[in-house]
Amino acid sequence: MEQKILDSRISGMDLETDRIILEAEEVLTVDVHAAKNLINSGHRYLDVRTVEEFENGHVEKAFNIPYMFSTPQGRVKNPKFMEQVLSVCSKEDHLVVGCQSGVRSVYATTDLLKADFKHVCNMGGGYIAWVENGFAVKKPKMDL
C-alpha cells in the first residue's frame, strides 16, 4: 500500500502512467542537434510514426516501423513492433528513435531497451523539432 502512495505522487494520475514515467526516466533522450550528429556518424534512424505520417515527410535515411496504429477506437500498439525491428536490426545496432513529437519514441525506446538493445536513444522533440531546426527532410514529390 505504501508503494502505491509513493508511486501516485509521481504523476498524480494512475499507476500505469507512473510506471511509464519511471521507465522513461531510464531512456537516454538527446536533442535534435545531437540526434543529427549521431545519424551523420552512422547511427540508424528508426521512425516509429504511422506509415501515413512517415510518407508525408521524414528524416533522410530513416526507416519506418510504426509503434502504434490509428484505429477508429484510437491508437493501439503495434503487436509486431519488436518482431519487425528485429527483422531489420540487431540488438547491437546504434539507433536513434524518433516520432512526431517525442512521446511515442520514448515508449518505443523503452521497449527496445527492455528487449536488450544496447545502443538506443530517443530523439526529443521528434520530427516537429527536426523540421523547426531546418534540418533536411525527404518529402513526397507532388504532381503538378
Automatic annotation (TrEMBL):
Q: Which SUPFAM superfamilies does the entry mention?
A: Rhodanese/Cell cycle control phosphatase
- Residue ranges constituting the Rhodanese domain according to the UniProt record: 39-139
Q: What's the superkingdom here?
A: Eukaryota
Q: Which InterPro entries match?
A: Rhodanese-like_dom, Rhodanese-like_dom_sf, STR17/STR18/HARC1-like
Family matches, as SMART domains: RHOD
Q: Name one Pfam family in it.
A: Rhodanese
How is this protein named in the record? Rhodanese-like domain-containing protein 19
Q: Which organism is it from?
A: Forsythia ovata
From the broadest rank down, the organism's phylogenetic lineage runs: Eukaryota, Viridiplantae, Streptophyta, Embryophyta, Tracheophyta
